[in-house]
Design goal:
Length: 404
C-alpha cells in the first residue's frame, strides 16, 4: 500500500470517529431530544480514532510520548473522578495526527455550523423551544435560539467564526470576513446579550484585518506574546478568583462585569480545593429549561473548571501542550493562528469550552497536518519579509506565479 493510500485510509477511519462524535456532542447542546444510546455511539466511534493510529505509517517519538503520557494521565483521572473526558480528548488528539487540518475544519463547520442553523430555524417555527431568559435588573431578553443556553449559542458562533477566519481568512475575503465578524458580534450581543462572545468576535475581526494587511507591529506582538499569554491566562484567572474580596471596588467591578463568576469560582475553590488528579464535582448550572437552579454552583472559567475537575497536573500539562502548539505555529509565521488562539484564550478565561472539540476544534489539532494551508499570502504592495526569505532560499521560485 503506497503512502498516499495510507494517508487517505487513516483520514477516512479517523473521520468515522470524528463525525459521529461531533454530531452527538453538538445535539447535546441543543434542545432536540436525543436517545440515551448516543453515549454508546460516541464510545464506539472513538474506537475508530484508535484504529486510525495504526495505519498512519511512521509515528514520531514526540507524538508517541505525548499521547502516551496524556492517555495514562487520562486513565488516572478517570479512575479518580469517573470522568472519561480527558481520555476522549487524548484519543481524538492522537487520531488527528497527520490528518489534513482543513478537512477536519470543514467537517466541523458542516456539522456544528449546520446543526446550529437547523436548531435556530427549528426554534423559530416551534419545533423546539427558543429559551428566552430575562436579566432581572435590566429586563434584557436573551435568546438561546434552540441551544440550551444563550451563552452556549453565542459560544458556538464565536468558535465557528474562529474556524472560518482561520480556514478561509488567508485568501482574499478580508472585507467580507471582517464584516461578517462585525455582524455576528452585533447579533449575539443584540439578541443573546452575550457580551464576552460579542467582544471577542469583534476584537478577532480587527486582529484578522490587521494580520491580513501585514501590519508588522501586530505580527511581531503576536509572535512575541502569544505563548506567554497562554501561560498568563490561567494564572490571571486563578489569581483574580482566589484574591477576590467582597466590598473592594476593583474586585467588585470585575465580579459584576463577569456576572458574579469571581465569587462563584472562589466558593468552589474554598469548598473543594485543588487536587493533583482531579475530583468528582457535580457542577449545577442553568440551561435546558427556564427554571433557575437554586443549587447553582457552576464555574464558567475553563481554566478553573479544568483545575477543579481534572486536577493541577492535567491543567499544567495541557497548558504546556498548547504552548508547544503556539510556538510551533509561531515558527511557521502563522500569525492568523496566533490571533485566533489569543482570542480563544481570553474567551476561555470566562467561558468553559476551551477543551471541548464540539466548540473549540483547535483543541485536538496539535498533531494535525497544517502543511497544505498557506501561512502567508501576497498583497498588492509587495512581498512580505517571509516571502522574501522563501524566495532567497529558493532561487528558482517565481514570485509572479505565486498564488494568493
Amino acid at each position: 500500500m503506497d503512502n498516499k493510500l495510507k494517508i487517505q485510509l487513516h483520514e477516512f477511519i479517523y473521520f468515522m470517529a470524528l463525525i459521529p462524535y461531533l454530531i452527538v456532542s453538538m445535539l447535546r447542546t441543543t434542545m432536540f431530544s436525543i436517545p440515551a444510546i448516543t453515549s454508546d455511539i460516541v464510545m464506539v466511534s472513538l474506537f475508530f480514532a484508535v484504529v486510525s493510529i495504526f495505519v498512519k505509517g511512521q509515528l514520531s517519538l514526540p507524538y508517541l510520548s505525548t499521547i502516551g503520557f496524556f492517555t495514562i494521565l487520562g486513565v488516572v483521572i478517570w479512575r479518580q473522578t469517573g470522568q472519561f473526558t480527558v481520555v476522549e480528548s487524548a484519543i481524538l488528539l492522537a487520531g488527528a495526527y497527520k490528518v489534513d487540518v482543513s478537512k477536519i475544519m470543514k467537517i466541523y463547520l458542516v456539522i456544528v455550523g449546520g446543526l446550529t442553523i437547523i436548531a435556530f430555524l427549528a426554534s423559530q417555527v416551534g419545533i423546539i423551544e427558543n429559551l428566552r431568559y430575562i436579566r432581572p435588573r435590566s429586563g434584557i431578553v436573551r435568546n438561546s435560539f434552540g441551544i440550551i443556553y444563550p451563552t452556549d449559542f453565542a459560544a458556538h458562533i464565536f468558535f465557528l467564526y474562529t474556524t472560518i477566519i482561520y480556514l478561509y481568512g488567508r485568501y482574499k475575503h478580508v472585507y467580507w470576513l471582517t464584516s461578517l465578524g462585525v455582524f455576528l458580534a452585533w447579533f449575539v450581543y443584540r439578541f443573546s446579550d452575550a457580551r464576552l462572545d460579542a467582544a471577542t468576535i469583534m476584537v478577532l475581526s480587527i486582529l484578522y484585518f490587521l494580520v491580513w494587511h501585514q501590519k508588522v507591529w501586530i505580527n511581531q506582538w503576536l509572535g512575541l506574546t502569544s505563548w506567554i499569554l497562554m501561560i498568563a491566562y490561567p494564572l490571571i484567572s486563578y489569581w483574580l478568583t482566589i484574591n477576590y474580596r467582597y466590598g473592594y471596588s476593583f474586585y467588585h467591578a470585575i465580579n459584576r462585569l463577569l456576572s458574579g463568576r469571581l465569587a462563584l469560582g472562589q466558593t468552589a475553590l474554598r469548598t473543594y480545593g485543588v487536587k493533583l488528579f482531579g475530583q468528582n464535582i457535580l457542577f449545577i448550572g442553568n440551561g435546558g429549561t427556564l427554571r433557575a437552579s437554586r443549587s447553582y454552583n457552576f464555574v464558567d472559567s475553563s481554566y478553573l473548571k479544568i483545575l477543579l475537575l481534572y486536577g493541577l497536573v492535567f491543567l499544567a500539562c495541557y497548558v504546556l501542550l498548547m504552548v508547544f502548539f503556539i510556538l510551533n505555529r509561531s515558527r511557521k509565521k502563522d500569525y492568523l493562528f496566533l490571533a485566533v488562539f489569543a482570542m480563544i484564550g481570553i474567551n476561555s478565561m470566562v467561558a468553559h469550552h476551551w477543551q471541548e472539540p464540539v466548540y473549540n476544534i483547535f483543541s485536538i489539532l496539535v498533531f494535525a497536518n497544517f502543511d497544505k494551508l498557506k501561512t502567508k499570502w501576497m498583497i498588492k504592495k509587495g512581498l512580505s519579509d517571509y516571502d522574501r526569505e522563501v524566495i532567497a532560499i529558493s532561487p528558482t521560485a517565481n514570485p509572479i506565479s505565486r498564488q494568493s
